[in-house]
Write a structure and sequence with these properties.
Blueprint: E1 2-3, E2 6-9, E3 17-19, H1 21-30, H2 59-80
Antiparallel strand pairs: 1-2, 2-3
C-alpha cells in the first residue's frame, strides 16, 4: 500500500515497515545534471544571505527547484515529525 510517497508494508503480522525509496529515487532522477554533487551539510554560513545581483533562475528551473525543496520538506516531515527549518527559506 502506498500513501503520500510512503510504501507501507504489512506483510509481518503486527508490524508495519515504512519506506520512501521510490519517492526519493524519483526525486533524485528529477534533479538537473548540474545539481549532481555532494556536501557534508546544507547549513553553510551564508545560507540566509541573499545576493541582490544574482542571476534569477528561468521560470521552469525555479518551479522545479521549488517542487524539489517541497518534496524534501515532505520527506523530512514524514521522517521526524517536524519540518527542516533550513529548507523553509528555499520555498
Amino acid at each position: 500500500m502506498e500513501y503520500k510517497g510512503m510504501k507501507l508494508d504489512y506483510i509481518t503480522k503486527g508490524k508495519v515497515k515504512i519506506s520512501m525509496y521510490k519517492f526519493i529515487n524519483k526525486m533524485l532522477a528529477d534533479l538537473p545534471s548540474e545539481m549532481n554533487r555532494t556536501t557534508k551539510t546544507p547549513a553553510a554560513v551564508h545560507l540566509f544571505n541573499v545576493n541582490p545581483d544574482a542571476k534569477k533562475l528561468l521560470e521552469e528551473k525555479a518551479q522545479l527547484f521549488h517542487h524539489l525543496v517541497a518534496k524534501i520538506m515532505l520527506m523530512q516531515t514524514h521522517k521526524t515529525g517536524h519540518s527542516n527549518h533550513c529548507c523553509i527559506p528555499m520555498c
